[in-house]
């Protein structure tokens, strides 16, 4: 396949003009963050937020034109709304100067030092377990590069935006959910640079009508990069939960994740050991494929709570793949009980007093 160049893309986009404008989006300097990687093209179009609704057709046209170019295997185009900077919000000891999210009580980041440890599965089932307690729960999929929540929660399609500014989150099993996966195709790679990821995260937090909720669970991307720093520095996180498997290679990353959150003054609410043991679904035999107890020991070493351990069982994976998480699909199962116990241990910390709801309110433009 022939390679496409930046010049070819910009030349093709000369034909895309905003409504009523004599200039193309290239001439008007509206293109931001153009990235080309092995035939995958991504960029953002800078717009006024008041024009978001009518600019959707322009976004689709730009995406279609680029996709049709020889050498392009996928095209991902986003609208980036640029606003005038608001006046600084009054500083508060409850938020450390970070602008709070009106109506939202506790904000809990579910994180991991590395990928593949079951962080998203944990975030999903803990969210449903909290909702089963009668709490009002939101779930934000903050993994821009690899969103999992649309599939796990059985959701698809673009969320509604009645005014072209605010987004109404999807809802499943009583949990309000937002993910970049609702806005792009499941097979579309996100090849954005750090600033675009940060902008998308803040829009999914602050431009979504979450309503009144008791706790917002944030399914973080793995690692300790831009997304984690953005959330820690700009959002009044109540705390973080670290998910890990028991083996040594994963536990080394637990230390990194714990230290990263501590450096940005985010409390560690606890550690969850996932894939703690394997239970044969036919005979019930137990085997420690990834060792056992390592996460508990690391939690003790770091002097943070240990929230519980989750077995490696096919039923959990099958339920998540089918969009019916185990807590909702089989609430009577031992697996669901495990997640409910973890959720209870978590809620004891974030919902035991008024601190989770003591954040001041601001008016969102």
Our measurement of the CA-to-CA distance between the termini, rounded to an integer number of angstroms, reads: 46 Å
Radius of gyration: 22 Å
How many E strands?
13
Give me the secondary-structure category: alpha/beta
Look at the structure and give the mean pLDDT: 84
Helix amount? 25-40%
Spatial ordering of strands, largest sheet: 6-7-5-8-4-9-10-13
Shape type: elongated
Beta percentage is 15-25%
Number of helices: 11
Spans where pLDDT lies below 50 across 5 or more residues: 83-95, 353-365
User: How many strands, what sense, and barrel or not for the largest sheet?
Assistant: 8 strands, mixed
- Secondary-structure element order, N to C: HEEHEEHEHEEHEHEHEEEHEHHH
Give a description of the structure.
- The protein is α/β, with parallel strands linked by helices.
- Helices cover 32% and strands 19% of the residues.
- The protein is built from eleven helices and 13 strands.
- It has helices at 6-12, 52-67, 119-132, 149-152, 194-206, 226-234, 248-263, 294-302, 314-321, 326-329, 334-350; strands spanning 31-37, 40-47, 74-81, 104-111, 137-141, 170-172, 175-179, 213-219, 239-244, 268-273, 278-279, 286-287, 306-309.
- Strand 11 (278-279) and strand 12 form a beta hairpin.
- Helix 3 packs across helix 11, helix 5 crosses helix 6 and helix 7 (248-263) packs parallel to helix 8.
